[in-house]
Amino acid sequence: MIDAAGRTIDYLRVSVTDRCNLRCVYCMPAQGVEPVPYGELLTLEEIAQVCAAAARLGVTKVKLTGGEPLVRKGCARLVGMLKAIPGIREVTMTTNGILLPRELPGLVEAGLDAVNISLDTLDPAHFEALTRFPLEGNVREAIDAALAAGLRVKVNTVGIEEYNGGDLAELAALARDRQLDVRFIELMPIGLGKTLTPIPGEEVRRRLEERFGPMEPYKGRRGNGPAVYYSVPGFVGKVGFISAVSHEFCQSCNRVRLTSTGFLKLCLHYNDGISLRDLIRRGAGEEELAETIRRAILHKPLHHAFGESCAAPNLEARTMSQIGG
């Protein structure tokens, strides 16, 4: 589908739950957030219904997120349902990796194409301070198991000066002898992220080049999103940067989000969108859903206003776990 700004929207990020087994400092408070009652979450069948309607409009790629998606039962079954939808070419997942070794066989059998594993530090003390949870060896196990299963693997790292500013090179080195990408994502000034010190992508690159030498821009295609990739001397994999704040890429944005409660969210920075759950539960069919999605996407904002002084009434105030990663 083409939105009002001429952008092709072909990518849907689907949050399957607002619950998580970690309490990352930029995502939720130490005590967590009040979880949505299960009856307010979309069922797996309702998620598939929305994705089928979106596919009619040209969405070809779906990423499952949370919270932590694997705390919800049935993720492998959902992957299979989505892969069966005509027009959906790729189904991927973002996870913190803790439950992935247990769930990986079912996900691979269901047809999962790729996995993004969120990992902000390899230092046990820093990991526990950042996530409020002990670092378990199965996160590294999950990375290697996913590679062995033939999945495309990306490791996602959010740079936060207070917690992992000295750990970035060690994380990048995961790509030295593994066929994976390590991506450094600028912290979004949303919810609790506003209270922390982000490390801009250019500063991360400077620190990595101090350690590994000059990095060369990579011209090939590595995924569905806006990451800019580099080749590092001696590395098998690539290093990428997603710099949404310092280098806005809204003009090429190709995505919308579906929250776990069925709200179609048009831009991460704003609370604009429409509830599809209400539509489904009053009996709307796929054609009506598709038309509702189409009309909503025509109002997708032209760009975010991160980094600007902005007091618009429609700014997003929820935490990342409530929105969907």
Concise overview:
The protein has 325 residues and is of the alpha/beta class.
Structural class: alpha/beta
Q: Major β-sheet, in short?
A: 12 strands, mixed
Number of helices: 11
Morphology? globular
Helical percent range?
A: 25-40%
Biggest sheet strand order reads 7-8-9-6-5-4-3-2-1-10-11-12
Series of H and E elements? EHEHEHEHHEHHEHEEEEEEHHH
**Radius of gyration (Å):** 19 Å
Beta-strand segment tally: 12
Strand content: 15-25%
- Average predicted local confidence, pLDDT: 90
Instruction: Provide the low-confidence segments as ranges.
Output: none
End-to-end span in angstroms? 23 Å
Describe the model.
With 325 residues, the chain is α/β, with parallel strands linked by helices. The chain is built from 11 helices and 12 strands. Strands 7-8-9-6-5-4-3-2-1-10-11-12 form a 12-stranded mixed beta sheet. β2 (61-65), α2 (75-83) and β3 form a beta-alpha-beta unit. The two termini are 23 Å apart.
Write the layout of secondary structure elements.
Layout: E1 11-15, H1 44-56, E2 61-65, H2 75-83, E3 90-95, H3 100-110, E4 114-118, H4 124-131, H5 138-148, E5 152-158, H6 161-164, H7 168-172, E6 181-185, H8 201-212, E7 216-217, E8 228-231, E9 238-242, E10 255-258, E11 263-265, E12 273-275, H9 277-281, H10 286-297, H11 320-323
Parallel strand pairs: 1-2, 1-10, 2-3, 3-4, 4-5, 5-6, 6-9
Antiparallel strand pairs: 7-8, 8-9, 10-11, 11-12
